[in-house]
Amino acid sequence: MARRHSMYSKKRKINYGRIIVLLAVLAALVFAVYSFFSTQDYQEKIDEVMSSEILKISGSISSVSFVDPTVYSNEGIRYTSQHERIKKLNSFDGALSDDLDKVGVAKLLLENLADADEAAKVKELSNKDDGYYWLDVSVIVENSFFIFENEDEYNFDLYYDIEEEKIYVKEKYHNEFSTKNNRLDLQGYEADEEFVKLIKELAEQQ
To answer: Which residues pair with 143 in a beta bridge?
Structure first.
Protein backbone atom coordinates (compact mmCIF):
# COMPACT_ATOMS: atom_id res chain seq x y z
CA MET A 1 0.00 0.00 0.00
CA ALA A 2 2.87 2.37 0.74
CA ARG A 3 4.18 1.94 -2.80
CA ARG A 4 0.71 2.63 -4.26
CA HIS A 5 0.38 5.76 -2.11
CA SER A 6 3.71 7.14 -3.25
CA MET A 7 2.82 6.47 -6.90
CA TYR A 8 -0.47 8.37 -6.73
CA SER A 9 0.97 11.21 -4.69
CA LYS A 10 3.25 12.35 -7.57
CA LYS A 11 2.16 15.61 -9.20
CA ARG A 12 2.28 15.98 -12.94
CA LYS A 13 4.18 19.00 -14.18
CA ILE A 14 2.13 21.13 -16.60
CA ASN A 15 4.11 22.68 -19.42
CA TYR A 16 2.43 26.08 -19.69
CA GLY A 17 4.87 27.20 -22.40
CA ARG A 18 3.64 24.55 -24.84
CA ILE A 19 0.00 25.36 -24.07
CA ILE A 20 0.55 29.08 -24.76
CA VAL A 21 2.33 28.34 -28.05
CA LEU A 22 -0.45 25.93 -29.08
CA LEU A 23 -3.15 28.50 -28.28
CA ALA A 24 -1.24 31.16 -30.23
CA VAL A 25 -0.93 28.85 -33.24
CA LEU A 26 -4.66 28.03 -33.11
CA ALA A 27 -5.54 31.72 -32.85
CA ALA A 28 -3.28 32.52 -35.81
CA LEU A 29 -4.95 29.78 -37.88
CA VAL A 30 -8.43 31.09 -37.04
CA PHE A 31 -7.32 34.62 -37.95
CA ALA A 32 -5.78 33.42 -41.25
CA VAL A 33 -8.95 31.51 -42.23
CA TYR A 34 -11.11 34.52 -41.32
CA SER A 35 -8.88 36.87 -43.36
CA PHE A 36 -8.97 34.50 -46.33
CA PHE A 37 -12.76 34.33 -46.53
CA SER A 38 -13.58 37.89 -45.45
CA THR A 39 -13.48 40.91 -47.77
CA GLN A 40 -13.30 44.62 -47.16
CA ASP A 41 -14.24 47.66 -49.16
CA TYR A 42 -11.25 48.65 -51.26
CA GLN A 43 -11.16 52.12 -49.70
CA GLU A 44 -11.32 50.66 -46.17
CA LYS A 45 -8.39 48.34 -46.94
CA ILE A 46 -6.31 51.31 -48.14
CA ASP A 47 -7.12 53.18 -44.92
CA GLU A 48 -6.17 50.12 -42.84
CA VAL A 49 -2.82 49.68 -44.61
CA MET A 50 -2.00 53.42 -44.47
CA SER A 51 -2.51 53.38 -40.68
CA SER A 52 -0.17 50.35 -40.28
CA GLU A 53 3.61 50.29 -39.83
CA ILE A 54 4.70 50.91 -43.43
CA LEU A 55 8.08 49.50 -44.37
CA LYS A 56 8.14 50.34 -48.07
CA ILE A 57 6.05 51.90 -50.84
CA SER A 58 6.81 51.43 -54.53
CA GLY A 59 4.95 51.52 -57.82
CA SER A 60 4.35 53.45 -61.02
CA ILE A 61 2.00 55.82 -62.77
CA SER A 62 1.08 55.31 -66.43
CA SER A 63 -1.35 56.70 -68.97
CA VAL A 64 -3.70 54.16 -70.56
CA SER A 65 -6.48 54.22 -73.14
CA PHE A 66 -8.45 51.24 -71.88
CA VAL A 67 -8.62 49.63 -68.43
CA ASP A 68 -8.98 45.86 -68.26
CA PRO A 69 -8.92 44.75 -64.60
CA THR A 70 -9.75 41.12 -65.48
CA VAL A 71 -7.60 38.34 -63.99
CA TYR A 72 -6.65 35.78 -66.64
CA SER A 73 -5.32 32.26 -66.20
CA ASN A 74 -3.11 30.31 -68.59
CA GLU A 75 -1.75 26.87 -67.65
CA GLY A 76 -2.03 27.68 -63.96
CA ILE A 77 -0.33 31.08 -64.26
CA ARG A 78 -2.53 34.05 -63.40
CA TYR A 79 -1.90 37.54 -64.72
CA THR A 80 -3.69 40.86 -64.81
CA SER A 81 -3.38 44.54 -65.87
CA GLN A 82 -3.83 43.90 -69.59
CA HIS A 83 -4.55 47.57 -70.26
CA GLU A 84 -4.23 49.10 -73.73
CA ARG A 85 -1.68 51.67 -74.92
CA ILE A 86 0.22 51.79 -71.66
CA LYS A 87 2.75 54.64 -71.41
CA LYS A 88 4.77 54.55 -68.20
CA LEU A 89 5.17 58.13 -67.03
CA ASN A 90 6.93 57.67 -63.72
CA SER A 91 7.99 55.08 -61.19
CA PHE A 92 8.91 55.34 -57.53
CA ASP A 93 10.66 53.19 -54.96
CA GLY A 94 10.89 54.03 -51.26
CA ALA A 95 14.29 52.34 -51.08
CA LEU A 96 15.76 55.09 -53.30
CA SER A 97 16.46 58.43 -51.64
CA ASP A 98 15.83 60.28 -54.93
CA ASP A 99 12.28 58.89 -55.05
CA LEU A 100 11.15 59.89 -51.56
CA ASP A 101 9.21 62.94 -52.83
CA LYS A 102 7.35 60.80 -55.37
CA VAL A 103 6.63 58.15 -52.73
CA GLY A 104 5.19 60.87 -50.48
CA VAL A 105 2.88 62.05 -53.29
CA ALA A 106 1.73 58.47 -54.00
CA LYS A 107 0.94 57.97 -50.30
CA LEU A 108 -1.05 61.22 -50.18
CA LEU A 109 -3.05 60.11 -53.24
CA LEU A 110 -4.03 56.87 -51.48
CA GLU A 111 -4.93 58.72 -48.27
CA ASN A 112 -7.00 61.24 -50.25
CA LEU A 113 -9.58 58.53 -50.96
CA ALA A 114 -10.61 58.57 -47.30
CA ASP A 115 -12.36 61.93 -47.80
CA ALA A 116 -13.49 61.46 -51.41
CA ASP A 117 -17.20 61.58 -52.19
CA GLU A 118 -18.65 58.53 -53.91
CA ALA A 119 -19.60 58.73 -57.57
CA ALA A 120 -21.36 56.17 -59.76
CA LYS A 121 -20.35 52.51 -59.74
CA VAL A 122 -19.47 51.10 -63.17
CA LYS A 123 -18.81 47.67 -64.65
CA GLU A 124 -16.10 48.95 -67.00
CA LEU A 125 -14.44 52.14 -68.20
CA SER A 126 -14.91 53.25 -71.80
CA ASN A 127 -12.00 53.44 -74.25
CA LYS A 128 -10.41 56.92 -74.35
CA ASP A 129 -7.13 57.83 -76.03
CA ASP A 130 -4.67 58.42 -73.16
CA GLY A 131 -7.77 59.11 -71.08
CA TYR A 132 -6.70 57.61 -67.76
CA TYR A 133 -3.87 57.73 -65.28
CA TRP A 134 -3.24 54.29 -63.79
CA LEU A 135 -1.59 54.43 -60.37
CA ASP A 136 -0.18 51.05 -59.36
CA VAL A 137 1.08 51.02 -55.77
CA SER A 138 2.68 48.24 -53.72
CA VAL A 139 2.80 48.72 -49.94
CA ILE A 140 4.74 46.47 -47.56
CA VAL A 141 3.66 46.67 -43.91
CA GLU A 142 4.82 45.03 -40.72
CA ASN A 143 2.18 42.90 -39.02
CA SER A 144 2.32 41.52 -35.49
CA PHE A 145 -0.02 38.86 -34.17
CA PHE A 146 0.68 37.51 -30.67
CA ILE A 147 4.29 36.33 -30.83
CA PHE A 148 4.43 36.29 -34.63
CA GLU A 149 5.85 39.10 -36.75
CA ASN A 150 5.79 39.16 -40.52
CA GLU A 151 5.70 41.44 -43.54
CA ASP A 152 2.64 41.61 -45.78
CA GLU A 153 2.43 43.15 -49.25
CA TYR A 154 -0.68 44.88 -50.58
CA ASN A 155 -1.26 46.03 -54.15
CA PHE A 156 -3.59 48.90 -54.99
CA ASP A 157 -4.72 50.12 -58.41
CA LEU A 158 -6.32 53.53 -58.87
CA TYR A 159 -7.69 54.65 -62.23
CA TYR A 160 -8.14 58.38 -62.74
CA ASP A 161 -10.39 59.61 -65.55
CA ILE A 162 -8.56 62.75 -66.70
CA GLU A 163 -11.56 64.33 -68.47
CA GLU A 164 -14.22 63.51 -65.88
CA GLU A 165 -11.89 64.04 -62.87
CA LYS A 166 -13.08 60.83 -61.23
CA ILE A 167 -11.16 58.08 -59.44
CA TYR A 168 -12.08 54.41 -59.85
CA VAL A 169 -11.04 51.50 -57.67
CA LYS A 170 -12.37 47.97 -57.22
CA GLU A 171 -15.50 47.68 -55.12
CA LYS A 172 -13.84 45.16 -52.76
CA TYR A 173 -10.23 44.31 -52.02
CA HIS A 174 -8.85 40.94 -53.07
CA ASN A 175 -5.36 39.77 -53.94
CA GLU A 176 -4.64 41.25 -57.38
CA PHE A 177 -4.41 37.75 -58.92
CA SER A 178 -7.68 36.53 -57.38
CA THR A 179 -10.36 35.66 -59.95
CA LYS A 180 -12.91 37.03 -57.44
CA ASN A 181 -11.91 40.41 -58.88
CA ASN A 182 -13.67 39.46 -62.11
CA ARG A 183 -17.05 39.66 -60.39
CA LEU A 184 -16.52 43.15 -58.98
CA ASP A 185 -17.59 46.56 -60.25
CA LEU A 186 -15.40 49.66 -60.18
CA GLN A 187 -16.44 52.15 -57.48
CA GLY A 188 -16.18 55.77 -58.57
CA TYR A 189 -15.09 58.73 -56.41
CA GLU A 190 -15.02 62.45 -57.10
CA ALA A 191 -11.46 63.80 -57.34
CA ASP A 192 -11.03 67.03 -55.37
CA GLU A 193 -8.60 69.81 -56.31
CA GLU A 194 -5.87 68.36 -54.11
CA PHE A 195 -6.08 64.93 -55.77
CA VAL A 196 -6.01 66.45 -59.28
CA LYS A 197 -2.98 68.57 -58.37
CA LEU A 198 -1.12 65.61 -56.80
CA ILE A 199 -1.74 63.11 -59.59
CA LYS A 200 -0.66 65.60 -62.26
CA GLU A 201 2.44 66.35 -60.19
CA LEU A 202 3.31 62.65 -59.93
CA ALA A 203 2.69 62.05 -63.65
CA GLU A 204 4.83 65.00 -64.74
CA GLN A 205 7.57 64.80 -62.09
CA GLN A 206 11.08 64.10 -63.38
So the answer is: 150
